[in-house]
Design a protein that fits this description.
Oligomer: homodimer
CATH class of the domain at 62-191 in chain A: Mainly Alpha
CATH architecture of the domain at 62-191 in chain A: Orthogonal Bundle
Largest sheet of chain A: none
Distance between the termini of chain A: 44 Å
Largest interface: A-B, 47 and 46 residues
Strand content of chain A: under 5%
CATH superfamily of the domain at 62-191 in chain A: Tetracycline Repressor, domain 2
Number of strands of chain A: 0
Structural class of chain A: mainly alpha
Order of helices and strands of chain A: HHHHHHHHH
DNA sequence: CCCGAATGAGACATCAATGTCTCACCTGCG
DNA sequence: CGCAGGTGAGACATTGATGTCTCATTCGGG
């Protein structure tokens, strides 16, 4: 939430445009520039003033998404303490930017660009390292590959974002339900 | 649904075309008809001979997807026996058609049609009923809503399908890792 | 009050995807 | 062999999205 000064009209902040675009595109990759603009509450002309074209918009979206997730990884301090607790902190941060994560998760095949691939690889490596540490410390199961757990983590975070968008899940519950399901599973404790 | 014999060339079966289309479109919703055709190993002209247009293709895709999932629900006999075991059977059936499920899961906002919405609602209700039964019998946790568990189930099945497509997961392991993660979670048993 | 900056609405050309068509080819069968 | 059905390649017009442009409007600041 940038509280910078806007000299004239109440311009919609660039980041807010990107957020709206991410949430729309994560659901409908075929959304037109006009739909994207209206979802952000601006006109198509203004959208084009911010981003040269669809390609530039998607590039900015990918860049911001990667940056937000990496900032989340930093904030979660995933190299410290109990792996399970680190994972919960990571999920806290990730669900906060679930919209962008859902976009990256579902759309990374489109508009492939080297920096985006590299950024995603960095994120993947860091999350994988955490899960590997958890496995080696005996906290996480050894019969589920870390690669699958990474995929499952992002899938659940993205799903939580969609559930929130669709009103099936309260935003404040997203982090908890993802963490509880990913870590503890769906079975009642007495039943396992 | 004509299951007639093909008298001349080795025609690519309609269902195989739909399967290829589902796997491609679940990843890249913007794929062109030409890309879809080539992913199925046929020409654009032949694709148009099978399906009047993109709309008809997507409709057929949705119809077949819903049908396959409902057949899977039938085969899994989810109303019988231990809910956890029923859920494992359901996941077995669902991962077998993960490509179609991933398509339906990610693309159901596009090309909305009444029969598709109704079909998805039927599936949702049946899976929800199973989870509700599991909760009432004390097998499934009561602190995770059934709506969330339904979303998570489909998200994990779809994710497993993508992981298989991308070569990060062996197809024969898909059912196991989804079921183990969804039911038991990622924590080592001794650690919880 | 007036000016400047940013916006929204709309016109316009361009481009890629789409849907339809024709035609030549191949294969299986009588 | 000759035919018939299915196919691939390609031409063609059409459509919708896109990118660029102009112009009037509006709001904030000096």
């Amino acid at each position: 939430m940038s509280h910078l000064r806007y000299r004239c009209l109440m311009s919609v902040p660039r980041e807010q445009i990107l957020k709206a675009a991410a949430e729309l595109l994560s659901r409908r990759a075929t959304a037109s520039m006009d739909e994207i603009a209206r979802s952000a509450g601006i006109s198509r002309a203004t959208l084009h003033r911010h981003f040269a074209g669809r390609e530039a918009l998607v590039a900015a979206l990918g860049e911001l998404g990667i940056r937000q997730i990496e900032e989340g990884l930093d904030a979660a301090r995933i190299d410290e303490g109990d792996p399970a607790e680190a994972l919960r902190r990571l999920i806290d941060e990730a669900t906060a930017v679930a919209g962008f994560l859902a976009f990256l998760y579902g759309e990374n095949e489109l508009y492939e660009s080297d920096p985006m691939v590299a950024g995603w690889a960095r994120v993947d490596a860091r999350v994988g390292a955490l899960l590997k540490r958890g496995r080696e410390e005996g906290v996480l199961r050894g019969d589920l590959s870390t690669a699958w757990l990474v995929d499952a983590l992002f899938a659940l975070v993205a799903a939580s974002g969609w559930s929130v968008q669709d009103g099936r899940l309260a935003r404040r519950d997203a982090s908890r339900v993802v963490a509880e399901l990913l870590l503890g599973g769906a079975l009642e404790r007495s039943a396992r």
